[in-house]
Structures are given as structure tokens and as C-alpha cells.
Amino acid sequence: MNGRAENFKSVFIYSDELANFEYSPTHPFKPIRAKLTLELCRRYDLMERPWIRLVNPEPLDFAVMKEFHDEGYLKILQALNSGTLDGKHWPDLLSGRKGDFLTVDPEILKYGLGTEDNPIFSGVYDYAALTAGATFLGAKMIASGEVQVAFNPLGGFHHAGRAYAEGFCYVNDVAVAITHLLKEGWRVAFVDIDAHHGNGVQEAFYQENRVLVISFHESGRDLYPWSGFENEIGEGKGRGFTVNVPLPQNTDDEAFVRAFEEIGPPLLDAFAADIVVVELGADTHISDPLTHLSMTNFGYCQVVKKLVGVAPRVLALGGGGYDVYKTARSWTLAWGILNDLEPRDEYVGVVGGMMFGPEIEVGSLHDKTVYMMGNTKERINREVDRVVSYIKQNVFPIHRIK
Ligand SMILES: [Zn+2]
Question: Domain range holding 201?
């Protein structure tokens, strides 16, 4: 493969400064995945092309984040940027508190800050502003026509609310970027294939018909954020413009891809977005420690290919992924698909070359697929069929899809 059509341009948005942030040594969200992804993209010969640019993001202005976020919340986050509260360092506030509780200031807890999921670390505001700036830069470059595809692996903080942090997310870069694109008159679809329901983005646009939000995720019966059921379809003029596809535990490649094909392309065709924002969370992988789906990057790639096929312009965001190496592999494959390039191992056969995790399969990033069997497969199929037919009955007619 030789890349996409003539005049095609893409951007990989990355900075070491961003990738080197750490929530805490034991926190499962590891920004360093972005660095590993870029290294892997280089190793697999997916960067050195005339149409590909590697660009450094800038922190997003307070004023732009305020277009979506509550000003008071942003100010609190800014005040905590030192990583201290009342002169005490955050780790000191937490240390010595093992077990079931933390000591948290109620003033910041009401904003979801200072929890185990959303700790206060030195530079927390800078980090959040930089992740939002990276996504915003991608949106801007697409909107200006500079590129058709932008990828920010450290984006997709889909759980953050207008005035609170949640689920490892402080600033909702997705909602901030989409809010701005709407102001400029763009028609935007957001497709989320992260294993977790994108509750923050859903809430942001629940009554909006200029944004189509589709989330495929592990069912809220079994996984945080305990929402995203098929009957959550938007309200008022937004009715039918929020679509949730909850999936049962152990959903495999075949079932996920089937659910995606039945729901994604017909809705995206009918809605005809100018820009499709995609959240390519890799935590659907069978090896992910936080979730209970059974996908591999085989199914993941099929979905990404289909998404790219129906989207004129793509703003791709990393989202979750807690098996660090598997996530870097999935995102590298996604970057290849976004650029219509097949990864090629530049180091194949090099003894003592760059190893990539203990599980590397030399020469290929591709997993073999996993296919569930017996009662488990029957249970998955029944549930996927039920959800798909619910959406076809209740959402498709709103978009005049037969
Ligand atoms: Zn996730």
C-alpha cells in the first residue's frame, strides 16, 4: 500500500512533555503509551512519508476550555497545579492511608479531584490543558483543510464532566473540541470504541442534534461508568442523536465487528458528518486488566478500517488501554490504517534490537483472533442481537434508515 489519495495529509500529534507525565507510580493510566506508540510507528516504518507531519501541541487556553467547562472547576484545577493542597504535597496526603479510604478535602472532592482515579499531581492542570490542546490542534488542522487525518494518542478523556473530573479524565478534550467545531458550523460525529462508555461526551451533547454520538462499550452492568444502556438515546431535539451499544462480557472480535457493522455505517451515512471524531480506546483487548471483553487487534483493525472508510475527515484520539504494550500495538496499527500503510518491521532479524515488550511477535503486530464458543458465544450473540434490534427499532426511524 502506498498511502491514501493524492493531496492526502495527516498529522501525528505528540510531545515528550505530555507522555512523561505520571498520575502516580501505581496508577493504571500511563501517558508513556504515547511515546511507545510513536517509537513503534517509527520502527514499523509508518512515519517517514511526505504527507505525514509530526507536530508538538501547545496547552489549550483557559478561555477555550471555558467554552465547555465550568470556570470555577478550571480555576480549582489550576490552583492544584502545584500538586499541593494547603502546602502539603499530594502523595503525603495519601501516604499512610492504605485500605478502603483516603483523606480528601471535601472542597475538591465535589469536583471529583483528589480521588484514587483522579489524583492531584504536580502539573495536573498543565497536563490537562496540553491533552486538550493536542486534540484541539488536530481539530483546527482538519477544519482549516491542512490535513484530513489527525491522531492524538493522548486524547479522548471522555469521562470528564463540565465541572468535575472522573475516570482518569480531568478536562474533556473531546467535548471541548466538538463544542468549538459546532461554533464554527461543522457537523460532527463522535464514534467511541473504547471499552468504557463515553459518559462525559454523551452528557455534553445529549440534547444536541448537530452531533451524533455513538458509543460501543462493555455494558454498564459490569463496568464503570455503569451507564450507556441502549435506551439512552438523547433528549429533546437530540433524541436519536445519542446511540449506545452496550456489549456483554467476553464479546469477541466477531460479535463486536458485527455490532459495529449493523449500527455504525448506516447511522454515519445518514448523518453525513463533515468531521468524524473517533476514540480508539484499546482496552477492549482480551489482555486488558480493567475490562472484561475478549477482543484482539484483529477485530479492532476491522472496525477502524470501516470507520475510516465512511469518514471524510478523521480526528482520532487514543482513549484508554491498560495493557501498555498491547495498546501501543493497537494504536500503531490504527495509525497505519489511517494512512493506508501496512506496518513493516524495520528491525526484523536484528538480534538484540529494540524489543517491544516481553510478548513481541517479531515481524508482525497483528494478533490472531479470539472466537468464543459454546454457551458463552450463544449468550453473547443473543445479547448483541437484542441490543442491535432495539437500536434499529428505536433510533434508525429517527434518521429514516430502513
Ligand atoms: Zn476505557
Answer: 10-399
